Amino acid sequence: MENYNHLTPYNRVEIDLSALRANYRQILAKVGENVKVMGIVKSDAYGHGLVPVAKVLADEGCRCFGVAETDEGISLRRAGVSGEIVVLLGASPESFGEIIEFGLQPVVFDRKVLAGLSSYAEHHNRQVGVHLKIDTGMGRLGIMPDQLDGFLKLLNESPGVRLAGILSHFPKADDLEDQAQALDQNRCFAEIVTSVRRNCGTIKVHMANSAAIINLPDSRYDMVRPGITLYGYYPFPSDKEYSGLELEPVMSFKTAVIQVKDVPSGYGISYGHTYRTSRPTRLAVLPVGYDDGYLRRLSGKAEVIIDGKRAPIVGRICMNACLADITDLEGVGVGDEVVIMGRQGREEITADEIAGWSDTISYEILCLFGGRNRRVYLPD
């Protein structure tokens, strides 16, 4: 059988691990030496690669990681990542064995799951650290504040588990115009923390996401949970002076020209002929489309960078291809590098800009590009 490993796709996502290090160090400096950092590496580290990102953060001294599900925690352990791994979506009965085997700490918010986990752990002569989630206004996972006493009683009666932490989450910490809800949530959570510490002693307390790290310093408690800031983006439109952080995007997305062609004025471009040329036009065919995360809704809105200059994407984006108008650019040829997201020369296209064209947020763009394309890790 022939080996085709020498063949590589046209498209590549580049991950700059030195930028990741720089962002992590800035977050550490922002929160101060008395506050720990939980590196949020869920969802394949927002498309940047679960294990490579976690290893860099561990090398920087990070000793706590947040994953979405048990399988991500297992992957970290098998890659040699130590420290605490918190499973943010909690445990299912099917995962109890792996939770114990790999030393993971699930978030809990369901009485039956909590009791079942304790019974399973006790049967195996083990004790599992858990983090109790309180819904202070997110309306998602977590127990309501009036259920707290019942859960603490159940925890005290469940020898197979121990309370390792308590957490909550902000839905509007990134709303710079109206901070009232976030402040009310934090006051509510602070009262709960006081009560829990009085009854349970030393536990980790964490609530601040990226926006709250910047915007609500009183919510930092013992530990913070940066996500998007690790990867070089602000959680809201922000200047560096306001945030106190000079973040560097960690991900770039690049492709190459595979054909250059000239078409006449009035020529229909791509499916549906939603775009017709208004002049004799030179096109660059790019091997990137919605199968690569370059969504169809970017058609007629997006731009790319070729030879240090911007070029508009014209016509509908296809599954595996799209077209850039390079009429005003000189000397573009087959094989030339094209930047979909990132910097080339003085020009830069960010995930925030692409998100604006797509009517979404930078988080989704990073997950799409990182999850759909070959990743290349730049020398660290």
Q: What is the fold's blueprint, element by element?
A:
Blueprint: E1 12-15, H1 17-31, E2 36-37, E3 39-40, H2 42-46, H3 50-59, E4 64-67, H4 70-78, E5 84-87, H5 96-101, E6 105-108, H6 111-123, E7 128-133, H7 148-156, E8 161-167, H8 180-200, E9 204-206, H9 210-215, E10 223-224, H10 240-243, E11 251-256, E12 259-263, E13 268-269, E14 275-276, E15 281-286, E16 303-306, E17 309-314, E18 322-325, E19 337-344, E20 347-349, H11 351-358, H12 362-372, E21 375-377
Parallel strand pairs: 1-21, 2-10, 3-4, 4-5, 5-6, 6-7, 7-8, 8-9
Antiparallel strand pairs: 1-11, 11-19, 12-15, 13-14, 15-18, 16-17, 16-19, 17-18, 19-20
Helix pairs in contact: 11-12
Q: Total number of β-strand segments?
A: 21
Strand content: 15-25%
Tell me, briefly, the overall form.
elongated
Radius of gyration: 24 Å
The major β-sheet equals: 10 strands, mixed
CATH-scheme architecture of the largest domain? Alpha-Beta Barrel
For this structure, the CATH topology of the largest domain is TIM Barrel
Helix share bin: 25-40%
